Amino acid sequence: MKRTAISAIIALSSAACVTVNIYFPAAAAEQAADQIIQDIYGRPKKGDAPEKPPNESGGVDVDTSLGCRVLSFIVPMAFAAQLDIDISSPGIDKLRASMRKRHQALSPFYASGAVGMTATGLLDARDLALVPIARRNALKQLVAEENRDRNALYQGIARENGHLEWESEIRATFAKRWVTNAPRGWWYQDDGGGWKKK
């Protein structure tokens, strides 16, 4: 009888006091995005370090009640490791190299306002009137290739980290960080889809 009661207490404690949240590590994603974007833009940006996440435990909330303290001796806490974003894979490195090379060709179009950054982390040829007719098709091709690589980058980071469900959050993080890291004078879309000059 005592053994059954102890087993029941342990089972109830384990169900009630340990909550594992595999949350999206926003601060780590911002750091990863900044690292990639600054590499693509070809310049480091000082003084733009993201804030630390409020929950330093990596998203693992542990109740400190007596039952949970007893349970901590029984249940391994391997899941409590700090979450991070992994951006080191051959596929991601290849995308970064392609985007870095293409950036040189896109830079004049950013500066003129012909190309802008969308709210979805992609590019748009926002004002083709600013581009000579002979160069418009080349610009459209550059934008299409860049968007293909950006989509692959967001998917690749999510896949590399084993969380395909993070893709939309990775995309949203990059959308903001592309703008944050961009020089003044470049155009971007706000959340409502309107164009603004940085």
Folded structure, characterized:
- This protein is an alpha+beta fold.
- The chain contains six helices and six strands, in the order αβαβααββααββ.
- It has helices at residues 2-17, 26-41, 66-74, 90-112, 133-160, 167-181; strands at residues 18-20, 60-62, 115-117, 123-125, 187-189, 195-197.
- Strands 4-3-5-6 form a four-stranded mixed sheet. Strands 1-2 form a two-stranded antiparallel sheet.
- The chain is globular.
- The chain starts with a helix and ends with a strand.
Structure keywords:
single chain; alpha+beta; 2 domains; 4-stranded mixed beta sheet; two-stranded antiparallel sheet
Short description:
The chain has 198 residues and is of the alpha+beta class.
Q: Give the strand line-up of the largest sheet.
A: 4-3-5-6
Structural class: alpha+beta
The number of distinct helices, counting runs of at least 4 residues, comes to 6
Number of strands: 6
Number of domains: 2
Spell out the helices and strands N to C.
HEHEHHEEHHEE
Give the overall average pLDDT.
80
Distance between the termini: 71 Å
The major pleated sheet works out as: 4 strands, mixed
Low-confidence parts: 12-20, 47-82
- Overall geometric form: globular
Q: Give the proportion of residues in helices.
A: 40-55%
Task: Estimate what percentage of residues fall within beta strands.
Answer: 5-15%
Radius of gyration: 23 Å
Give me the secondary-structure topology:
Layout: H1 2-17, E1 18-20, H2 26-41, E2 60-62, H3 66-74, H4 90-112, E3 115-117, E4 123-125, H5 133-160, H6 167-181, E5 187-189, E6 195-197
Parallel strand pairs: 3-5
Antiparallel strand pairs: 1-2, 3-4, 5-6
Helix pairs in contact: 2-4, 2-6, 4-5, 5-6
